[in-house]
Design a protein that fits this description.
This protein is α+β, with helices and mostly antiparallel strands and 89 residues long. It contains 1 helix and 4 strands, in the order ββββα. Strands 1-2-4-3 form a 4-stranded antiparallel beta sheet, with helices on one face. The chain is elongated, with a radius of gyration of 14 Å.
Length: 89
């Protein structure tokens, strides 16, 4: 996963909902405030948790949520470097 993003948990809960938890190493929780999940600061980074009813879950929640988290991290890194970061090169 890009930028130190890893899947901590991706499970079907007892109540039928799907839960996805991503851990982002060394991230600022304020950068992730608008990603749509519950953001919690941890000593080694940040966790973001999403929960969906099984019928409402996206087709590929890991890809969708990783992209949601990566966007603000890349924007912040680009601002720090002073130029856009191209991950396709």
């Amino acid at each position: 996963m890009p930028l130190g993003i890893e899947v901590e948990r991706h499970v079907l809960l007892a109540d039928g909902r799907i839960e996805l938890v991503l851990r982002i190493a060394d991230a600022d929780p304020d950068l992730l405030a608008d990603v749509g999940g519950q953001v919690v600061a941890a000593p080694d980074g940040v966790t973001v948790t999403w929960r969906w009813a099984a019928a409402m879950a996206p087709a590929d929640p890991v890809a969708l949520c990783t992209a949601a988290v990566a966007r603000p991290l890349l924007a912040d890194a680009s601002a720090w470097v002073g130029a856009p970061i191209d991950l396709t090169a």
